[in-house]
Amino acid sequence: MSTLEIRDLHVTVETENGTKEILRGVDLTVKSGETHAIMGPNGSGKSTLAYSIAGHPKYTITAGTVTLDGEDVLAMSVDERARAGLFLAMQYPVEVPGVTVSNFLRTAKTAVEGEAPKLRTWVKDVKEAMGNLRMDPAFAERNVNEGFSGGEKKRHEILQMELLKPKIAVLDETDSGLDVDALRIVSEGVNRAKDNTDVGVLLITHYTRILRYIKPDFVHVFVEGRVVEEGGSELADRLEAEGYDRFLAANA
Ligand code: ADP
Ligand code: MG
Ligand code: MG
């Protein structure tokens, strides 16, 4: 049983016009087996939240805490965060020139586990996970993110999550750029990870459509850098019908 706890998180970035506060007191708790959806309009700070949990150097934490099972995540290096059991799939994954998917996955697994996985079971696990995500075996020999389509990037993200078996996964806009078939396959992957490993999921999304495939236990409406309303999955249905206008007006 694991718990990611975010308390009164304030985050700034440096812009051309000076320091800008993006996160303005975020409170959130995600436990093993739970799925939380963070939903909000563009520019509300959702990706900033993901990057801040990931330890991206561009984002400065000015107040608040992030802990995983009581350990101070903000004091950890990016590698240490992964080893502690955090998985952070980014909205704009970077290219890793000259590194194949296969090598990348094995290196990541070794980093997270502290030792290299046994080759025979590892090869079998990768094959099975790729099959589940309907990925061509040749994909394993491509360079990471080089010329990947939107759908391939997302599948690669979920492939990593399935193989690394994190305690808590933060998925940012996992649905963007996916057609309906790819969306279903990727969602099945998330649901499989939930069933098999009891991972806690923080699913960040602008749109409600992925929530037809991945049922959230909790929905948090995110506006202007903070959570302004919380509820169950029925809140996502309301957002689908009404949009974010009501919350924007209430927050103005
Ligand atoms: P969302 O993911 O909800 O669309 P973001 O977290 O990407 O929102 O952005 C929130 C706000 O912070 C936006 O106004 C964006 O322009 C600004 N912002 C985010 N990251 C940076 C950055 N690195 N430099 C300057 N501004 C940024
Ligand atoms: Mg505050
Ligand atoms: Mg974003």
TrEMBL record:
Membrane-traversing stretches: none
SMART domains, sorted: AAA (SM00382)
Ranges where the ABC transporter domain occurs: 4-249
Molecular functions per Gene Ontology: ATP binding; ATP hydrolysis activity
SUPFAM superfamilies per the UniProt record, alphabetical: P-loop containing nucleoside triphosphate hydrolases (SSF52540)
Pfam families recorded: ABC_tran
Keyword tags: ATP-binding, Nucleotide-binding
NCBIfam families for this protein: sufC
Protein family membership: Belongs to the ABC transporter superfamily. Ycf16 family.
Protein name per UniProt: Fe-S cluster assembly ATP-binding protein
The organism of origin for this protein: Pedococcus cremeus
Organism classification: Bacteria, Bacillati, Actinomycetota, Actinomycetes, Micrococcales
